Amino acid sequence: MAHGEDVLQRLVVMSRRLADPALDCVILAEGNTSARIDGESFWVKASGFKMAGIGPEGFVAMRTAPLLGLLDEGRLSDEEVKAHLAAARLDPTVALRPSVEAVLHAIALTAGGAQYVGHTHPTAVNAILCSRRAEEAYAGRLFPDEIVICGPAPVYVPYTDPGLPLAREVYQRIRGYIEAHGETPKVILMQNHGLVALGRDPDEVEAITAMAVKTARVLLGAFAAGGPHHLSQEAVNRIHTRPDELYRRQLLKGQAG
Ligand SMILES: [Zn+2]
């Protein structure tokens, strides 16, 4: 499990950093994170743990296939879902319970194309997502660096009961996004709930989260100044596909050279 342990160590560091109080993304036991171990399994935060100061003991390894299989099941009671989640643990002898959003993480790490996932409830992002104009606010992009880091658009998900119903809705909307854009998303925005950042590595998850928080703050200011002026689709497409912007994306992520 050497590979899995390395992934876990990086996930622990990422989770602690996302929980930095200065970022105002999570308090108490809010939020959860995950990382792909291989094609068959992943780590996810266990239920009840705080992300701040979390250690490797706060994560549980899950088998991916049985969780994705729940998407095709009929209606399941909360107790049935809990039993399925417990049965999907890689090591059934560990006492930890996976986060109720474990199925959502399994989707983000497969259909969503991510290697690392950070789900948080940033105050600035939720100020928009809990407003009457949430969908309108996120119907377009606002500035170039937002596109560079967060992609050409977010996946927007109307409020859905957390757990399996939310996971099913997210799955459908990720599929719709891939059909529309020809690539996997970077950001999922869940109305009246929060943010999911989908990254290739921990640095990208942190960069996406920071940029989503900045975007939300810009939106709050834009609404105070008469409402957001979204970039045209043509402008968004140009930024998203320009070679110099691709280079800048590498630089912003500190991966160039
Ligand atoms: Zn949440």
Record the SSE blueprint.
Elements lengths: L1 H17 L13 E7 L2 E5 L13 E5 H6 L8 H10 L14 H7 L7 E5 L2 H7 L4 H4 L6 H7 L4 E3 L6 H18 L5 E4 L3 E6 L2 H23 L8 H9 L1 H10 L5
Parallel strand pairs: 5-6
Antiparallel strand pairs: 1-2, 1-4, 2-3, 4-7, 6-7
Bound molecules: zinc ion (ZN).
Please, could you describe this protein's structure?
The chain has 257 residues and is an alpha+beta fold. The chain has eleven helices and seven strands. It has one domain: 3-Layer(aba) Sandwich (L-fuculose-1-phosphate Aldolase). The model has no long low-confidence stretch (mean pLDDT 93). Bound molecules: zinc ion. Zinc ion binds at residues 119, 121, 193-194.
Fill in the keyword field for this structure.
binds zinc ion, 7 strands, 14% strand, alpha+beta, single chain, 257 residues, L-fuculose-1-phosphate Aldolase
Summarize the structure.
This protein has helices spanning about 1-20, 65-70, 80-85, 100-110, 125-130, 135, 145-150, 165-180, 200-225, 235-240, 245-250; strands at about 30-40, 40-45, 60-65, 115-120, 155, 185-190, 195-200.
Kindly provide the radius of gyration, computed on alpha-carbon positions and rounded to a whole number of angstroms: 18 Å
* Spatial strand sequence of the major β-sheet: 3-2-1-4-7-6-5
Give a list of the ligands.
zinc ion
Query: For the residues shown, what is the average pLDDT?
Result: 93
Number of strands: 7
CATH superfamily heading: Class II aldolase/adducin N-terminal domain
What is the helix content? Answer: 40-55%
Q: How would a crystallographer describe the biggest sheet?
A: 7 strands, mixed
Basic shape: globular
